[in-house]
Design a protein that fits this description.
By secondary structure, this protein is mainly α. It has 4 helices and 5 strands; from the N terminus they run H-H-E-E-H-H-E-E-E. The termini are close together.
């Protein structure tokens, strides 16, 4: 939550933005000493708190709307299940007299469809059993790169990866990255 000092920092930022847009011809502000750097970090800290406050408020509203949505959808699903149950009951009653009976109206159709059997797997038990029965050909082995081991076992020459025998490893390249500025604001 923003305290009075944070609000003052935000107000200064807003005033500075207005003044900067009015004085486009003037040279832009530059930090030239530690005191000014400290001032800029205070501004960043206040902006971070303001951002968190906005996100917190938005999340509360999102949660409230999500709660309303869930309640409304639950009522709709309840009504939908009721009507689907009535239609299913009617279809099954009519199917006793006519096994090919279907409902077909301008607003929809109701029929039955045969389904494939559902297979359930206990991966560990099935793999063990298949190996014991001599059916290792029914087990798939997935290959993937051990990236940490690769980095330890090779050298990089001009962006290319070379193994201990001097052979270039295709499919891997190393791209040098510039230094990154890291700004940490104390809260």
């Amino acid at each position: 939550m923003l305290n009075q000092l944070d609000l003052l920092e935000i107000t200064e930022i807003e005033e500075m933005e207005i003044k900067t847009s009015e004085d486009k011809l003037k040279e832009r502000f530059k930090i030239t000493d530690l005191d000014q750097a400290n001032w800029a970090l205070r501004k960043l800290a206040a902006l971070q708190k303001k951002k968190e406050e906005v996100n917190e408020l938005a999340q509360k509203e999102i949660d409230r709307i999500k709660s309303w949505q869930d309640k409304e959808l639950a009522e709709i699903d309840k009504s939908k299940e009721f009507f689907e149950g009535l239609l299913t009951e009617y279809l099954m009653t009519e199917r006793q007299n006519n096994p090919k009976f279907k409902i077909n109206t301008p607003y929809g159709k109701v029929s039955t469809r045969k389904q494939q059997p559902k297979w359930e797997y206990d991966e560990e038990k099935a793999i063990k059993s298949l190996k014991e029965a001599g059916h290792a050909d029914l087990i798939r082995i997935k290959e993937f790169l051990d990236k940490n081991a690769i980095k330890k076992a090779v050298t990089v020459v001009g962006g290319q990866v070379v193994d201990e025998n001097g052979i270039v490893i295709e499919g891997i390249k190393v791209i040098e990255q510039p230094e990154k500025v890291v700004i940490k604001v104390v809260e």
